[in-house]
Amino acid sequence: MARVLDYARGEAQMIPTAAKQRCGTSMPIWQAVAFIESAFAQRITLTTLARTAGLSVSRFATLFREQVGMSPHRYLCLVRVRRAQQMLRDGVPPCEVAAEVGFFDQSHLGRHFRRTLGTTPGHYVGRCSKTVGGLDTDQPYDLAQWLATLSPRS
Fold first, then answer.
1. What gap in Å lies between CA 83 and CA 116, rounded to an integer?
2. Is residue 131 left, alpha or beta, with left meaning phi > 0 and alpha meaning psi from -120 to 50?
3. How far is residue 123 from each of residues 48, 54, 84, 88, 129, measured CA to CA in Å?
4. Mapped to the 3 state alphabet, what secondary structure does the chain carry?
5. Top-level CATH class of 2-132?
6. Is residue 80 within 8 Å of residue 98, measured between CB atoms?
């Protein structure tokens, strides 16, 4: 579970690299993960992923869980939440983000976002927007000092 939370925070990468492949991620699972990473906004079924990997559905689900550390659906949701974080930081409204990353609606995004990150998309946006010019706006600061950091230095 710690790997899942690290991935969601952006502190770890779950995409298999050649090194990870040598360390135990098989080629079929690597192909499925690459497919999820590239087509996360589409409707992806377990059958589609198993076909991509060239395995039966049950064998695929078992191998995926063993090698990645979570179910294919959980991984897909994490990829979607991670992309949603980027879009929210860029100022895209949550209702648009939900549709863009493959969630059914805004409440569907909110449930997975809260489950993964422990906060709602609205609170996440609020927390991201509290940083202005590198300063946390919840903390007191000297306005003149902050303005001096913005002016060009000669």
1. 13
2. beta
3. 35, 41, 13, 11, 10
4. CHHHHHHHHCCCCCCCCHHHHHCCCCHHHHHHHHHHHHHCCCCCCHHHHHHHHCCCHHHHHHHHHHHHCCCHHHHHHHHHHHHHHHHHHCCCCHHHHHHHHCCCCHHHHHHHHHHHHCCCHHHHHHHHHCEECCEECCCCCCHHHHHHHHCCCC
5. mainly alpha
6. no
**What is the C-alpha separation between 85 and 90, in angstroms, rounded?**
9
Query: Which residue bears the tokens 């003149």?
Result: 144
How many C-beta atoms lie closer than 10 Å to residue 62's C-beta? 12
Q: Residue 103 in contact with residue 29, Cβ under 8 Å? A: no
Give the number of other Cβ atoms within 10 Å of residue 40's Cβ: 19
Model pLDDT for residues 19-51, shown as the tens digit of each residue: 344 446 789 999 999 999 999 999 999 999 999
Q: Considering the entire predicted model, what is its pTM?
A: 0.69
Phi, psi (degrees; rounded to nearest 5) at 42: -90, 170
Cβ neighbours around 31 below 10 Å, total: 15
Would you kindly state where each structural domain of the chain is located, as residue ranges? 2-132
